[in-house]
Amino acid sequence: MPDVQPPNTNTPESRSTEQNTVDYMTDLLDRLKSESVRNQLQLVKQLAESGETGRKGLMTFLLERSSQSMGMIEGAAYQILYADNTAEAQTFLQAHFPQGIVPLHSERDIDYTPLQQALAKQDFLTADRLTLEKLCELAGELAIQRKWLYFTEVERFPITDLQTIDTLWRVHSEGKFGYSVQRDVWLGAGKDWEKLWTQIGWKSGNNWTRYPNEFTWSLAAPKGHLPLSNQLRGVRVINALLSHPAWQ
């Protein structure tokens, strides 16, 4: 039987192909630093579809950005690697971003890791439930037992904790969700609650959106759709959230 020789990977053609791949990835990474946010999101998705080379490109991008404040582009890159079941991706995240890309700061020793994990998986229904749980933890034992908030409790929330929750939502939703996003929509509506409900998809005509099946638990939702606040007790709680000093 004749010997089977391994393919020659050192031919001019193979070297040219490798160089073209390197040049392509270098170009994508350079554009990630200068393009518009919309284009950057598309570039991240292009890298995600480029196999092992794209995975390495996303890792390089996150490492280069690790000393800066992370935003929605970094969030999109992280989520792709988080969902990647390869040992390379998981080892990289565990080594460099064991708690995610958003610092989980809390003035009251609240553990925001479960919320971070749910948002990284784009499990927005679970993340919404966890957000209420964490807000009740911030409010104290009575709020934990009753599972809802008084507006006076919200007014006393630490700025640090609200900003952590909000940043997690924004970074892992391409900037579509979060209390600061809802505040922007609210201010744009002239603080008109009825206009806000319609714009963020919480009400259609005279009908409130029913929980949970009528809400949209994906990025297809309107801007500001999540996280939810219970309006059955009036607007004082959400008013306290959107008026909190954390956003000023």
Automatic annotation (TrEMBL):
SUPFAM superfamilies, per database record: ARM repeat, GUN4-like
GO terms of molecular function: tetrapyrrole binding
Domain GUN4-like: 106-245
Ranges for region Disordered: 1-20
Pfam families: GUN4, GUN4_N
Stretches assigned to the GUN4 N-terminal ARM-like repeat domain: 21-98
InterPro entries reported for this sequence: ARM-type_fold (IPR016024), GUN4-like (IPR008629), GUN4-like_sf (IPR037215), GUN4_N (IPR032192)
Family annotation (Gene3D superfamilies): 1.25.40.620, Gun4-like
One annotated Gene Ontology cellular component of this protein: outer membrane-bounded periplasmic space
The protein, known as: GUN4 N-terminal ARM-like repeat domain-containing protein
Lineage: Bacteria, Bacillati, Cyanobacteriota, Cyanophyceae, Oculatellales
